[in-house]
Amino acid sequence: MACLAEGIYPRVAIFAHNSGYKGEKPENESYAHTRLKIDVVKAARELGYKADLEVCGESPDGFKWRADVMVTDHNGQQTAFEIQMSSQTLAEYRRRTERYTLSGVRCCWVLMYKLGSSRLHHLEHAIHCENQDFCKETGLVQIEDDRLVTLRVMLEGTDTYPEKRPTLFLRQHFPIEQLQMPEAIDRVVQNKLHWARPRWRWT
């Protein structure tokens, strides 16, 4: 399956599948996407978890999935970390997350924000639009979803990546909850998030 040299950050990563592999093959990835996946794997392994790239599976109702990074804790519970650099509809986020849920796998989306941008992420905008009634009734702005666990990473773009491992944010806007990558991954894997509408919070 996907192979990357241990401890090396390649400028170009080549993912090769075994001959005769009939599963869904990954599209070409950006440099930042590949580097971020490697950093998530390394951070999870530093914590003592099992972590692998491009892990494939299938839900009980026959829907196939492929996790960018699959982290397995000491009790065997799996958490898929999906790196999402490009635009995707809210319905697609939910559909892909549901496939993991049906398979007994938790899912966390790592979304890229461009440094210096003050615009809402397309996912946050979609959630906000869907919850206009809640906003009118309470005066609270909802840009997160109780079915989607998301972390944010600030990058300059998809063609570059910082030398120092980037931090992860539970939320882009105030109050910012910023963590080093290993701590953020550990909290997600240990399920230390709870939903308190309109947002997720660390326990």
Strands, count: 9
Oligomer category: single chain
Low-confidence stretches: 1-25
What topology, given as strand order, has the largest sheet?
1-2-3-4-5
The profile of the biggest β sheet is: 5 strands, mixed
Q: What distance lies between the first and last C-alpha atoms, to the nearest angstrom?
A: 36 Å
Number of helices: 5
Proportion of helical residues: 25-40%
Shape category: globular
Structural class: alpha/beta
SSE arrangement, N to C: HEEEHEHHEEEHEE
- How much of the sequence lies in strands comes to 25-35%
Mean pLDDT: 87
Rg over CA atoms, rounded to whole Å, is 17 Å
Protein model, in words:
The chain is α/β, with parallel strands linked by helices. It has five helices and nine strands; from the N terminus they run αβββαβααβββαββ. The protein has helices spanning 31-46, 90-102, 122-130, 132-138, 181-189, and strands at 50-58, 64-72, 78-84, 106-114, 149-155, 168-169, 178-179, 193-196, 199-202. The strands form three sheets. The protein has a five-stranded mixed sheet with strand order 1-2-3-4-5, sandwiched between helices. Strands 6-7 form a two-stranded antiparallel sheet. β8 (193-196) and β9 (199-202) form a beta hairpin. The radius of gyration is 17 Å and the shape is globular. The N and C termini lie far apart (36 Å). The model is unreliable at 1-25 (pLDDT under 50).
